[in-house]
Amino acid sequence: MDGCVVRLHTVKFKPKIDGSRGDFTAQPIKVHFYELLGISDATELVPQVDNKDILSSVVALFDVSLPDVGPRDVHDTVHSHGTHTIILLRQQSDVLEEYRSRTLPCPRREPVSSPVPAVVNGDRESEGRYLQVFSESEDSSDDSADEHEEGEEGTEPRSAWETFCTGLEEFLARARERRAQREAPVEDQQLPLTAVGAESLIVGAAAYELKTLSTGEKVLQLSLMATRKRYRNCGVGRYIIELLKTQSVCGAYDAFLAHADTDAVDFFSRCGLTDDALLNDKFREVRDEWTNTTLMSYLPPFTTESESCNPGFSLMLPELKLEVEMARTKALAAYQQQAVCVTRLVREVKTLREQVRLINHTSFEDILWNIQPG
């Protein structure tokens, strides 16, 4: 399990400027869900919380934050063989303390069984597609049972998406129960730890993939990224980007690529990524993988942070010299090609002007000849 789960140091985030939230801590965890969920006796990411509930919360967060993607595409991306996900999770004790100290709302008149968004935690972030997926799974419960029985008779195994959908109804039911516990506690009794689930712990997440392009360059491609609404403007998104730029966490790469929505271009620009069309044209192989987005890139320095911490590190690296020399040679060759092109264009213009002058002069002489008498 060590290869599919990497726990990083807990981080403290700043409070919101408007004072609506104080500072808080969260632990980043890098997870390979495809491998983790394939281990029958895998250790829980969070004590007393099913790993499948963590996956459901991540998919819910992405879906309510990026509704144009669709829940199935979100799940297939997060659960892909080549995708890793960085999740920021809060400690159960901290979240429970916040619940216990807050002012309780008025009791709800709706029954406990009323539908709520998958990411609840007392904050309706969306009434979007992820809720509809839960509804569809509830409506098709009989069909799911039939499929399960047919599978036992030797038909094709169920896909990861079908298996995931099977547990959605149970996850949503448990989320409703936890929310009911938080909103209607018994007098003179403290809120129990069971009222805190995966949907209450997640702060933000990012799914990425390391791939090699046809040019031979290895790139880190950010597929999905989102932060809970209540934790925005606290530095969470910028911290996730810094983790992705840290090769000791995500692995070595030649470029970090992101497909940014129109309203996210400024955010990625502030984090050091560029939308330069000429520069990013070299990555056109992945440009159209996400629609209605702008391809942005970050090129890391020649020296990684792990190399710079090496006692024997020297700035006069042979690789750096070779890279600079190659860049100089390519730049010189490009300049020579431009100079040749400009010179030939100038000569072409001179030739055309001479031809135009001769044509005009000949036409003028013809006119004079035609108007002479007899």
Describe this structure in words.
By secondary structure, the chain is an alpha+beta fold. It folds into three domains: 203 residues, no CATH class; 98 residues, 3-Layer(aba) Sandwich (Aminopeptidase), CATH 3.40.630.30; 41 residues. The protein contains 15 helices and eight strands. Strands 1, 2, 3, 4, 5, 6, 7 and 8 form an eight-stranded mixed β-sheet that branches. The longest helix is centred in the C-terminal third of the chain and has 54 residues. It is elongated and about 125 Å long.
Instruction: Please report the distance between the alpha carbons of the first and last residues.
Output: 108 Å
Global structural class? alpha+beta
Rg, rounded, reads: 30 Å
The helix content, as a percent range, equals 40-55%
Shape label? elongated
Please write the string of helix (H) and strand (E) elements.
EEEHHHEHHHHHHEEHHEHHEHH
| Strand-residue proportion | 5-15%
Quick structural summary:
By secondary structure, the chain is an alpha+beta fold.
Keywords:
elongated, 374 residues, Aminopeptidase, 14% strand, 8 strands
Question: Helices and strands in order, then pairings?
Answer:
Blueprint: E1 5-7, E2 11-13, E3 24-31, H1 33-36, H2 51-65, H3 71-78, E4 83-89, H4 92-101, H5 129-139, H6 141-152, H7 160-166, H8 168-183, H9 198-201, E5 202-212, E6 218-227, H10 236-244, H11 247-250, E7 255-260, H12 265-270, H13 277-280, E8 294-298, H14 305-308, H15 318-371
Parallel strand pairs: 6-7
Antiparallel strand pairs: 1-3, 2-3, 3-4, 4-5, 5-6, 7-8
